[in-house]
Amino acid sequence: MSYLRFVCLLASTLATAAVLMAVAQSPALQRGISVQMAVTNNAATMPDADNQNAWIVTVAADGNLYFGIDPVTRDGLAEVMIRTPRNREQKLYIKADARAQFASVKAALGPVRASNFEDVVLLASQPASHADGTMVPPKGIEVQLGNPGSGGAIVVRLSGPAQGSTLTVNDRRVTSTEFGSTLKSIVHSHAQVVRVEANDAVPFGDVMHVIDEAHAAGATVALPIYHSL
Q1: Is the Cβ–Cβ distance between 225 and 207 less than 8 Å?
Q2: How far apart are CA 40 and CA 138, in angstroms?
Q3: Which residue in 66, 62, 85, 84 sits closest to 74, CA to CA?
Q4: Which CATH class is domain 44-222?
Q5: Which residues 6+ apart lie within 8 Å of 72 measured at CB?
Q6: What SS3 state is found at 185?
Q7: For residues 225 and 198, what is the distance between their CA atoms, to the nearest angstrom?
Q8: What is the torsional sign of CA 95, 114, 72, 64?
Q9: Phi then psi for 23, rounded to 5 degrees?
Q10: With the C-alpha atoms ordered 176, 177, 183, 185, is the resulting torsion angle positive or negative?
Q11: Cα(42)–Cα(124) distance, rounded to whole angstroms?
Q12: For residue 209, which of 221, 201, 226 has the smallest C-alpha distance?
């Protein structure tokens, strides 16, 4: 064997070994149900959502629910969450299709709240520039499920048909374009709570837009699922 062939063979072997080692050391990505998530601009990176043992509840566009990759009913979701062991500090991630009606998302959040989760992470899609083939970690926004009450909270309501939601802030109607600046003018600290309410027919993408803008304004977001419009 010539010296040049030996050097090329050695280099190829080392490169292959390096790739195999990197794969072996990389965390296994959790399989999941594909949905069209709402696009946000202010979601935070949530790398733990890719862990094999991550708790992910998916809401498909047609309202079907999944725990991990297993289809479940609303009652079945409550049962499987009781049976499945979890770490005390483990977060729960909701991956909802932007086209799903808010009623379907509430159907998932009801059992979640009953399982003693005080808050959840709503996963979202977020535009970002990255090289082709680059693994992009999940992103999401954390929200509270409890109802903080109206006293001191900024109340944002979405109502109307699925073709176009009506938006109000503290009972004053605003347009979608002025909503962000309106919130920033009245949110003065992270302790400020923005309570987001929506009727059942509103697409979840519209709800997620409101949550994204409230997060950008620096507020804590509450999503009281038992309150109906």
Answers
A1: no
A2: 12
A3: 66
A4: alpha beta
A5: 65, 66, 80
A6: helix
A7: 9
A8: negative
A9: -65, -40
A10: negative
A11: 10
A12: 221
Q: E strands, the chain, where? A: 44-45, 55-59, 65-67, 70-72, 92-96, 119-124, 139-144, 154-159, 166-169, 172-174, 193-198, 220-222
Over residues 108-153, the pLDDT tens digits come to: 998 888 888 889 999 999 876 555 556 678 999 999 987 765 568 9
Single out the residue of 99, 124, 97, 122 nearest to residue 109, CA to CA: 122
Query: What does the DSSP 8-state code read for residue 203?
Result: B
pLDDT one-digit tens code per residue, 141-189: 999 987 765 568 999 999 876 456 789 999 999 998 899 999 999 998 8
